[in-house]
Structures are given as C-alpha cells and as structure tokens.
C-alpha cells in the first residue's frame, strides 16, 4: 500500500473538465470528468465518473475508498463547491471490531468491501478526492491475492452491510468490472505522482499502528470531525451532512483531521507516563474522557486535546521521517511503556467497547477471539492491557451493584455535555454505523471510573406527560405495500407523500430561509406575509424551511429556536389561538383571555425568552375579529426588542392586509410580503416527473396533458396529483390482465381530467324523467315569453300544462308538477325559493339556457 | 266439505299473505343492502376499489357520491361497506364513522359524535367532552398520531354532505380533507349529496384539499329496465316457505308486467319520476289492497294506487269546503282576472261577493260580514290564500293584502267535481259577467 499524500502536504487544484451536463433538479451542474493538478508537479490526474477514488480520511495511510458516481457543482452559496456522489467501500479495519470476526477468515491486506448501507451519506466534497485507485472485483470462488506487488490495487469480493458479509451479486460484479479499462488508462500519471510524493517513512509496521488506532472506534462517523463554528453552512434544500467538506474548511488552517486524530491517539497512549501517582485518578479519568469524546464526535477542540497534542506533536514529527526499522522499534517500545505504567486508563483506550463488554461478562475466550487480528504486536499488547484493565475494574467496581452502574450511565453523559457544550449540540453525522450500543458501554466504563456520588437524576425525569395522548387504535394487520408499478406510482403521487425537496419553489424557499435565518442570527423578531392560491406549496415550503433550519440549528449554524405552528382553520374561534400558542410554547393550559395576558407578558417583558420563537400562522384570514386584536397582538409582539419572535403568516389572498386589516395592524405587519404564483404547466410537469422519478408508469404525453389542463384551470398542484392518481386507477381498471405492466396513456389521463372537471349538469338533465324535461322546457318558454330570467311557479305551470297537452302527455296535476319542481331544485338544476311560497315561488335556472337546450335537443 | 276446504285454503292464504306483505314492505321501506344494484356497476367498482385501497393499503381518499334523491347513493355505499367488511383482514382493521348532516347540525355535535363512534372518549375519561375547542384539538391530535402503515383506517361517511358545508368556516370538512391529504391516520371521507353544485359550496382551500373524485348516480335506466325493476321488486324470493304460493305469486307478477294497463301505469310513473322510491310507494299502496279474498295483485289495484299517488292535494281540500268558502274563492279568482294577479284584501273580496249575492238575490247566500270574515280566515288557515306581509296585530285584518294560491284551472276542475254545487255559483265561476 502506498502512502497517499493528502492535499495539505501538497496543494492541489481541482477543476472541471468538459462542459456541464444537463441541470439536475436544482442548480446543479453535473460533469463527467474532473482534473486534479498538484502544485509543483506537472502531472494531472483526470478522474472520471465510474472510476474508483481515494478520499481523504482521518488517517493518511488508509484513505477511504469509493467509487465515483456523480460530479456536480453546488453553486447555491456564493463560492461554488465541487461536490461528488460516491459509493463507499470499507476496509477491513473500518469494520467495527466486534463484527470483524463475522468474516470468518483472515482478510487480504488489500481487500476492501462493498459498503451496502444506504443510510450512509454518499455526498462528499470533490476536493477531498486524493487520487485514483484500482479496484478489482473477485468472483466468490477467487482467492484474495496476498502478494503485494501492486500497492495501488485493491480487491473487492464481499459486501458489508453493517450486519454481515455477503458475496457480491452478479450484476454488481459486472458493474464493477466495467470501468476498469478507463481506470487503468488514467492510472499511470497517478502512480508516478504518488511515488514522487510518497513519504519514505511509510512502513507496514506503522500501518499496523494506525490500524490499531482506527479500530478504537467502531465507525468512522465518530472520527470525522465537523466544525462547530462554521458560521453559515450551506443552505441547500438538502442540508445533508458532509463530514469531508466541513472537515476541510475547518481544518484547512489548523491541521489535517487525520493528524489531529493521530495526535489524540498518541496522547492517550502516552499520557499515563505523566502520572505515576495513583492519587490523581480523577484527573486521569478526565483526560481519558476527552480523547474519547473526540473520537466519538470528532470534535478535537477541547482543552485536553490541545494540551495533549502540543505535547506529543514532537513525537509524531519525529516519527514520520523515521526509517523502517526504527519505526517498528518505536512502535514496540511505545506500547510496552504505556502498559508498563499500569494505569487503568491506557488499555481502555486501546480496547474497543465491545471488548469491554465481553470482559464485563467475564468471557475471556470471547475476548481473545475478538482480538484475534493478523498482527501479533497488537494482539500481544492488547491482551496484556486488557488483563490489566480487568483487574483494575474489578478493584474499582466491585462494590457497585449493576443497578448503580445503570443509574450512573446517563449521569456521566450529562457531565460530559457540561464539560463540552459543543459536543452536546453537534448533530450526529453518521457516515456509517449506528452506534448507540458501543456508546452506552463506553459511558458505563467511564462512569465506573467516576465517583458515584455526583449523580444528578435529571435524565431520569419521566417523559410521559400527565394526560395520555389519544390515538386511533393501531391496525392488527399491517398495511399492504404496493405490489405493482402503478400502485407504487399512486403512493408517490399521493399529496401526503412529502418529497425530499420541493421542486420549482427554490426561490421562495431561499427567500423565506434567508428571512428567518437573518432574524435568528440577529436575535431580532419580524413578520412575513405569504400569500398564494391553494395548492401552491406555501405551507409545504415553510415546513421545509423550518426543517432545514432545525437541522442547521442542530449543526450550530444558527442559534436554536422554538417552532410553533397554529392553523386558523383548526381553531374553533379566533381567540383560541392564544391558548394554542401558549400551550405549545410552555405547555400551560389557560383560558383565551388569560393566555393572551401570559403571552403578552412573555413577549413584552425584558429578558424572558432565551431563544427565538418562530411562529407559523396558517390561514391568517380566519383570525380576523371585529376589533382585530388578535392580528394586532401577533404583529405587535415581534416589534418588541426582547420578544425575539418571528411570525410567518400564510393566507390565500394577496391583498389581505389592505382589505381587512386596520392601518395600525397592517403597518405592524410590515412590507415583507411574498406571493406564491400558481404553478405553470412546466412546473407542474416537473413536479410530477420528480415524483415519478425512476418509475415508468406514465407516458410523457400523459403527464404533459394533465399539467397543461391543471395549469390552465387553477395551477393547483394537489389537483394535478389527484388527477394522475385517478389516471393510474383508470389504467388499472381498463387492463384485462393484472400482471402486465401498463403505462398510463393520454386516453387514461384524459378520462381522469374529464371526470374531475366536467360539469355533470348536462348528464343530469339527459337522465331526468320526461316530466322533468318538459318542465325545463316550460321554464325556457316562460323565460322567452316574459323576457326575464325568473318566473313564478304558477306561470311556469300554465306553460307546462300547455306543453304537455301539445306533446300528448297526460295532464300533470299541480302536486306532481310541484314534486318535479322541488326535485329539480334539490339537484340545484333550478334555484327555487322555499316551498312555503307555493304557487308564488320564484324559479330560476342554475344552468345556462343553452346548456339546457343542448341537453334536451339530443333526445 | 268443499266449503271447509276453501276455508282451510284461505287460512293458508292469509298466513302466506301476511308473510308476503311483511317481506315486501321491508323491501320497500328499507334500503336493505340485499337488494340488487341497477345499472351502477361501474360506480360500484370505483367505490369499492377505493375503500379497499384505504382498508388494505392505508391510502387516504376522499370522494363524493352525487345523485338525485332516491338514486341509490346510500344503497351503494352500504353495499360497498358490506362487501368490504366481508373481507377477513379488513373487518378487524377498519373503523367507520357515520354522520348525517341532518343530525349533526354543527361541528361541535359532529366532533362529539366522531369521538363517540371512534370509542375515544374512554381514553381520557370525561375530559373529552369539555369545550368545543378542546374537542377539536383532541380529535386532531388523535388523528395526527397515526401514520399510513400502522394506524387503523377510518372511513367517514357524511350523509347530506351539503349541510356540512354550511357549518361555520367548514372547519370539520377542512380538517377531514386535510388529514386525508397528509401523512396521518389513513382516512376515507365519503360524502353523499344530491346537489350537483356541491363543489361550489366548498371554500377554496377546502376545495383544494378535496380530491375531486365524484361518483355520479343518475338513474340512467330506460323504461324496459324500469319494468324489470318493477318485476324484481315485487317477486318473492326463492327461499319463501310456501313454494307453491310463491310460484303462483311470481307468475302473477310476470303476467302483470306484461299487462297493457299496468304498463301504462308504470309508464306514467316513469314519466313523472325515475325515482325508485316513488315506485316503492306505488307498489306499497297496491300491496295494501291484497287480502285473503283477493290474494293476487291485479291491474286494477295498481291503477287505483297510481290514482292515489297522482292526486292533486289542493283539489281534494277544495272538495271539502263550504259553499260560502267556494264563493269566496270564486270571487278571488275574478279579482285576479280583473287586476292581473294583484293582491287583494278581504274588503275587496267581500264587495265582489256582495255584488254576486245582490244580483242573484238568494237568501242562502246572504251572510253577515263577520261570518264571511270567518270563512275568509278559514281559507287562510288552509293556506289557500297567503298574506303578502307578516300579520301584525294592530293592522286591520279586513285590509290586509292577500294572494290566492290556487290556479284557475285548479279551481275549475275542483268545482266540476264539487258535490251539489249550485248552478248559479258554477255559472258565476265560469264568468264574472254571467249575472248581466
């Protein structure tokens, strides 16, 4: 294996090759190829999609391996970023140690595994790519070659899904085999370059040391550092976490993350040398905790770390240029030293939590199994240290009962977070592997080292609220999953299926996001009025904004805030809005008047709220009262300096502030307005396409037809989706064989459109009885006679009698005719007065006369 | 001997007949889901597929069943629900909520009813039936908790859906449709209404949330099918205990359906209304004429029943009026003719009547004014005349403006059938100038 130069050692420039390809759904421009130029070196690497690349990771010797799937540029934020989507591979050392035995054999030195874990974030910064690598897939029968002739070749034989190793599926195998030619072409300059940049210090032994370190953590997610202070992170619709990228920005000036990691690791090993006095147990455990934390969350900015790193940087620096033999020796000497200090802490660092667990269970054998690794050094040292830690723990923890340990468990976590606030607020950025188990175990270890006296019971607070929340009883039989393409399409087309991003509303999203974010960052308040006809995505966009902001708040990009949503339509009367806000804000229940007072106190008195409140008021127009006090209050609170309240209001009409609000209310609302235009036909088409992505259920023309029809009528996205859903049903009905996958054609969507939009009046008239039809004729005749659009029943009756006589129908009695009239009235073909007026009731047509004539003519 | 035989025979007949009448009356009065569907197979399939998807896949839906009264909306949904509940995996998994716009006249009552039918009131004790606002938030909370895959689907059936649209702010409809369009507890909202303009009643945001699925029931059958329905409705089922009688009865029904006069009656009914309820009414009246001595329905029965159905109710009342009242009505008719439908008051009618009495001086017709007034008031009570404005206590009743609620042809027809009508009155009715 080579030592891959990271971009910090030699500065690299990244540039796109070729023209951008078609826009993806957002502002993305995709590229097929990227060029990496190394400073001071004339060679360039051309990296194409489909090739295998090395990605800068935590340790320089074992960079991450991945297959490049997509290259694109993210220019949503001013400095455009080069991004890439990859399919990860894992090295054996990246597999959690507890799972390593699942392989059941010794892994090849250059064996990697296809990482089949969809939850893993595959979106990375393209500038973390170091270079190309050759990956050769092996058939299940093949043996992983062990000779290390070509260091830049890796072998993949199995896939790893965090649970077990599986052989590669045949199509995956074929897919992996495909891009080899192109990869091979581009490899030459790479190799030359890497050789020139290769550090002479690289040795297998050092690699072993690295491996030990990397095994400390169960997954890489803990190692990947994220910068807690990046002021304005990306504001894309998917604020997907990207460890690599933030790592780059954060560490550009400091050090490479791998370096930090390494320093930490060494500090752990050597730190006990400082303390030979056993009475400093407390400080020791603190020193232990800190590095562990850094591994867990990747935050390496605690004091302990810095101290440790400064102390041991020298060791590292000297280590790098060391020759092969000395390096081994150093490695060897290092470990015994640490072990020789007999500290309880050192081994715990080296140990994986899983080992500890097993040790707790007193299963020495299993422990040996777990530590059985190809490298003797490691094994020796770890076994040694493990035995020691076991003794130590027995000594420390014998007096404590199991239950106590459990109680301590959350306590120690609390003390952790208090010592390091940043850690507490860091979002879990999982690159890999859920890690709850190991974490708990780890903390249990820590707690056992702690003195058990300082146990705050905070975390044991009962979580259930007093009143049980009501719920519809759950079904005994699971809901069926969609079986066919059409059913799948129908599921996706349902309005409730919230897409991961809202196409065609990027601009609005950005505006609202910026507005709320700026208010959050400035610690001020403000109002915004959002209008638009129903079904244009107002509420959905705001929800999306809030979701992104909440993610950003977790990532510490914006200050944390509280989000409250009220809907005017979900209130029984306007003043209930106070009750709801108060309840969601503080959990208190109060009457409307009292709630208004409490809220006013909360928002208008100095210094009460610590964090900003974002209030979404949907269907604002329903909060209108005669005095308009509700609206006045809602818009008045944010103007108070201390309130820190951001109010987003949504309603349908654009001119609502002018129409129904008093001046003092609309003045407080301000001029931050936004109008959601109805979707155009191309936007609707895009929405449908994005929902039906990778699903061949609709003909293109069918989608277009629906989009055009809806855009012409209302621009309501809900309508569009409903029609398409209906079209799939019609398609399904019309199919004779249920198993043949039919496409929804124009005819189907046409039928659906007709069904939803066509007026039923004409069919109703055509299907009415003879007497009803002649009554309608009589109405027309009476209208023509009088020249008015209205007639009394008596007048129509005389016309009706005459008509019946002409057509040879039996004489209609008054009662019959009245029944006919009221029947037509109940269908609302006619508009009639209440029947107490009897003969004098006035009758009007609810349909145009032409329609009636048309419907009657066909007979 | 023979008389005894006939006696026992008639005894059997009586038993059979009472059974026949029970079966048929049940059929006519109740929309039992056992009866067959006529010509709505497509709509039925649409609805039942929709319900099945909600029940099995947890897909939320909303649909309106629109059709004139008596077109079988309720029968359709009952049929579909019955079929749905027969599926094994569904019957345990589906909750139904039946609401009727005539019963749940506002959202508050409707919410309580929903909570009750969902058996949610047990969850928090009596707290549910607190204020309206609490009810609403309680129910919304309950429905929000669920999701597509794990929650029990709820089928809401809103009868007289148009009346729900008149509730304040349409809160209930908004929330139901909103749930059906969001990833909460899967629900199917089925509205039954006879109004074709129902969508115009919905507020725009409620309308946008409604899926716009409409199932139209239009009574689109023709006369031959109507006769077939008539036959099917009247024939006895195969499981009738007395096979011989049932066979005879059914033969008779078959004969009736081919009878010319019966067909005429049916045609007349069909022309008036395609509503199956009016057919049921006709058959019910005919069935009542069947007795032990007259065990099988005849064409005459049907004709008389038809006559009963198509009777003019007002003309019947006119037959029961006194001569004085008839005279007043005639006077009003003349006033109408003279003043072209302008309203009149008692004094004018009295004057007109006096003119007639004076010309044709006849002691019988010479009534005191209070007596005439009394007769006038009686007419008002029978709603033959209608005051133009509200009756207020202080205004003089003689001068209150009135309008006649009888048509000229109606009066003339009634007079012709009026028993013992004096000839001069009849003459006066034909022409106001006949006294000249």
Concise summary:
Chain A is an alpha/beta fold and 859 residues long. Chain B contains 21 helices and 7 strands.
Notable traits:
A: alpha/beta; SH3 type barrels; Rossmann fold; Helicase, Ruva Protein, domain 3; 5-stranded parallel sheet; 35 helices; 20 strands; extended; disordered N terminus; B: about 425 residues; Arc Repressor Mutant, subunit A; flat; ORC1/CDC6 (chain A)
User: What is the residue-mean pLDDT of chain A, rounded to a whole number?
Assistant: 68
- CATH architecture of the domain at 505-675 in chain A, please? 3-Layer(aba) Sandwich
Which class best fits the helix and strand makeup of chain A? Answer: alpha/beta
Strand order of the largest sheet of chain B: 2-3-4-1-5
CATH fold field value of the domain at 505-675 in chain A: Rossmann fold
At the fourth level of CATH, the homologous superfamily of the largest domain in chain B is P-loop containing nucleotide triphosphate hydrolases
Distance between the termini of chain B: 74 Å
Strand order within the widest beta sheet of chain A: 5-6-7-8-11-10
Compute the average pLDDT of chain B. 84
Largest sheet of chain A: 6 strands, mixed, barrel
List the quaternary state of the chains: heterodimer
Radius of gyration of chain B: 30 Å
Structural class of chain B: alpha/beta
Q: What characterizes the major β-sheet of chain B?
A: 5 strands, parallel
Instruction: Give the helices and strands of chain B as they follow along the chain.
Output: HHEHHEHHEHHEHHEHHHHHHHHHEEHH
Tell me the strand percentage band of chain A: 5-15%
Specify the CATH class of the domain at 505-675 in chain A: Alpha Beta
What is the CA-atom radius of gyration of chain A, in angstroms?
A: 36 Å
Tell me which protein chains meet in the greatest interface and how many residues each side has.
Answer: A-B, 83 and 91 residues
Shape, principal axes of CA atoms of chain A: extended
Biased composition (Basic and acidic residues) (chain A): 207-216, 355-366
Biased composition (Low complexity) (chain A): 438-449
Region (Disordered) (chain A): 183-305, 355-480
GO molecular function, one term (chain A): metal ion binding
């Amino acid at each position: 294996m080579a030592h891959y130069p990271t971009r910090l050692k030699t500065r690299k420039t990244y540039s796109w090759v070729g023209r951008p390809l078609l826009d993806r759904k957002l502002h993305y421009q995709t590229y097929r190829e990227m060029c990496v130029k190394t400073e001071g070196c004339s060679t360039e690497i051309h990296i194409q999609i489909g090739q295998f690349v090395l990605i800068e990771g935590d340790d320089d010797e074992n960079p991450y391996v991945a297959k490049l799937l997509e290259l694109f540029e993210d220019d949503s934020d001013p400095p455009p970023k080069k991004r890439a989507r990859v399919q990860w591979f894992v090295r054996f050392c990246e597999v959690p140690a507890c799972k390593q035995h699942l392989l059941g054999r010794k892994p090849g030195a250059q064996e990697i595994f296809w990482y089949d874990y969809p939850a893993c974030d595959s979106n990375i910064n393209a500038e973390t790519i170091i270079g190309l690598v050759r990956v050769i897939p092996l058939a299940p029968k093949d043996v992983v070659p062990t000779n290390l002739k070509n260091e830049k070749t890796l072998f993949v034989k199995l896939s790893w899904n965090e649970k077990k190793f599986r052989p590669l599926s045949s199509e995956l195998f074929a897919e992996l085999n495909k891009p080899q030619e192109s990869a091979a072409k581009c490899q030459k300059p790479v190799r030359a370059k890497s050789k020139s940049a290769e550090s002479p210090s690289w040795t297998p032994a050092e690699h072993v040391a690295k491996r030990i370190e990397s095994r400390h953590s169960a997954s890489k997610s803990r190692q990947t550092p994220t910068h807690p202070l990046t002021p304005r992170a990306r504001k894309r619709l998917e604020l997907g976490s990207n460890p690599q990228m933030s790592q780059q920005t954060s560490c550009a000036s400091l050090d490479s993350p791998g370096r930090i990691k390494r320093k930490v690791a060494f500090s752990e090993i050597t730190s006990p040398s400082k303390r030979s006095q056993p009475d400093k147990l407390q400080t020791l455990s603190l020193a232990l905790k800190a590095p562990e934390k850094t591994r867990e969350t990747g935050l390496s900015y605690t004091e302990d770390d810095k101290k440790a790193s400064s102390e041991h940087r020298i060791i590292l620096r000297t280590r790098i240029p060391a020759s092969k033999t000395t390096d081994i020796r150093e490695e060897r000497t290092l470990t015994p030293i640490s072990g020789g200090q007999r500290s309880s802490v050192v081994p715990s660092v080296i140990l994986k939590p899983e080992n500890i667990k097993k040790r707790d269970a007193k299963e020495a054998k299993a422990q040996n199994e777990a530590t059985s690794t190809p490298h003797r050094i490691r094994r020796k040292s770890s076994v040694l240290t493990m035995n020691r830690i076991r003794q130590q723990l027995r000594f420390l923890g014998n007096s404590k009962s199991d239950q106590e340990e459990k109680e301590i468990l959350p306590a120690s976590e609390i003390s952790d977070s208090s010592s390091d606030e940043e850690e507490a607020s860091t979002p879990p950025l999982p690159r890999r592997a859920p890690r709850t188990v190991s974490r708990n175990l780890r903390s249990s270890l820590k707690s056992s080292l702690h003195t058990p006296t300082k146990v705050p019971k905070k975390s044991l607070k009962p979580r259930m609220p007093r009143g049980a929340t009501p719920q519809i009883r759950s079904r005994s039989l699971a809901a069926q999953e969609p079986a066919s393409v059409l059913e799948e399409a129908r599921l996706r087309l349902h309005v409730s299926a919230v897409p991961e991003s809202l196409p065609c509303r990027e601009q609005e999203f950005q505006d609202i996001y910026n507005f709320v974010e700026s208010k959050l960052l400035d610690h001020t308040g403000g109002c915004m009025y959002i209008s638009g006809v129903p079904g244009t995505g107002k509420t959905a966009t705001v929800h999306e904004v809030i979701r992104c902001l909440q993610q950003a708040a977790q990532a510490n990009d914006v200050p944390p805030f509280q989000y409250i949503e009220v809907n005017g339509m979900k209130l029984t009367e306007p003043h209930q809005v106070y009750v709801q806000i108060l309840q969601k804000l503080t959990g208190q229940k109060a009457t409307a008047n009292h709630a208004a007072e409490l809220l006013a106190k909360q928002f208008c008195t100095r210094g009460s709220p610590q964090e900003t409140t974002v209030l979404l008021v949907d269907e604002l127009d329903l909060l209108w009262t005669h005095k308009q006090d509700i609206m006045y209050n809602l818009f008045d609170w944010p103007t108070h300096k201390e309130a820190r309240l951001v109010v987003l209001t949504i309603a349908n009409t654009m001119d609502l502030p002018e129409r129904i609000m008093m001046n003092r209310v609309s003045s407080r609302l301000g001029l931050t307005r936004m109008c959601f235009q109805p979707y155009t036909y191309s936007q609707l088409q895009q929405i449908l396409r994005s929902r039906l992505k990778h699903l061949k259920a609709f003909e293109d023309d069918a989608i277009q037809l629906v989009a055009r029809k809806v855009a012409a009528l209302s621009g309501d996205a809900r309508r569009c989706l409903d029609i398409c859903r209906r079209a799939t049903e019609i398609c399904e009905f019309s199919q004779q064989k249920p198993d043949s996958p039919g496409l929804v054609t124009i005819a189907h969507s046409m039928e659906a459109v007709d069904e939803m939009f066509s007026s039923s009046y004409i069919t109703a008239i055509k299907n009415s009885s003879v007497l009803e039809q002649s009554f309608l004729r009589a109405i027309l005749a009476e209208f023509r006679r009088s020249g008015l659009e209205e007639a009394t029943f008596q007048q129509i009756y005389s016309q009706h009698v005459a008509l019946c006589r002409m057509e040879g129908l039996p004489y209609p009695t008054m009662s019959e005719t009245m029944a006919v009239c009221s029947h037509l009235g109940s269908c609302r073909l006619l508009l009639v007065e209440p029947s107490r007026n009897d003969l004098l009731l006035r009758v009007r047509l609810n349909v145009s006369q032409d329609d009636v004539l048309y419907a009657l003519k066909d007979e | 001997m023979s008389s005894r035989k006939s006696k026992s025979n008639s005894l059997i007949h009586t038993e059979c007949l009472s059974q026949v009448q029970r079966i048929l009356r049940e059929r006519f009065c109740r929309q039992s889901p056992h009866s067959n569907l006529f010509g709505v197979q497509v709509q039925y399939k649409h609805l039942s597929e929709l319900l099945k998807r909600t029940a099995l896949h947890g897909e939320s839906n909303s649909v309106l069943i629109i059709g004139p009264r008596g077109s079988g909306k309720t029968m359709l949904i009952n049929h579909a629900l019955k079929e749905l509940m027969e599926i094994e995996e569904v019957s345990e998994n589906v909750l139904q909520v039946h609401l009727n716009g005539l019963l749940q006249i506002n959202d508050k009552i409707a919410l309580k009813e929903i909570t009750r039918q969902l058996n949610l009131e047990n969850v928090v004790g009596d707290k549910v039936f607190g204020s309206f606002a609490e009810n609403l938030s309680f129910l919304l909370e309950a429905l929000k908790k669920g999701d597509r895959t794990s929650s029990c689907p709820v089928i809401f059936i809103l009868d007289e859906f148009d009346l729900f649209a008149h509730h304040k702010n349409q809160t209930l409809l908004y929330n139901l449709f909103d749930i059906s369009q969001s990833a909460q507890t899967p629900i199917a909202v089925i509205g039954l209404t006879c109004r074709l303009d129902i969508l115009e009643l919905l507020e725009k945001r409620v309308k946008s949330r409604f899926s716009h699925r409409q199932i139209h029931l239009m009574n689109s059958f023709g006369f031959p099918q109507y006769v077939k329905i008539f036959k099917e409705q009247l024939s006895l089922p195969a499981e009738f205990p007395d096979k011989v009688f049932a066979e005879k009865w059914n033969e008779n029904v078959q004969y009736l359906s081919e009878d010319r006069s019966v067909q005429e009656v049916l045609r007349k009914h069909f022309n008036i209304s395609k509503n199956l309820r009016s057919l049921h009414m006709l058959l019910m009246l005919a069935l009542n004429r069947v007795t032990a001595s007259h065990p099988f329905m005849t064409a005459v029965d049907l004709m008389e029943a038809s006559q009963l159905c198509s009777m003019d109710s007002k003309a019947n009342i006119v037959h029961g009026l006194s001569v004085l009242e008839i005279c007043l009505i005639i006077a009003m008719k003349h006033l109408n003719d003279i003043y072209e439908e302008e309203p009149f008051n008692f004094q004018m009618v009295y004057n007109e009547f006096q003119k007639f009495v004076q010309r044709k001086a006849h002691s019988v017709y010479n009534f005191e004014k209070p007596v005439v007034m009394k007769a006038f008031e009686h007419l008002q009570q029978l709603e033959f005349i209608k005051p133009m404005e509200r009756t207020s206590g202080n205004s003089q009743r003689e001068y209150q403006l009135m309008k006649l609620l009888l048509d000229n042809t109606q009066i003339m027809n009634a007079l012709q059938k009026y028993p013992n009508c004096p000839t001069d009155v009849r003459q006066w009715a034909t022409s106001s100038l006949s006294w000249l």
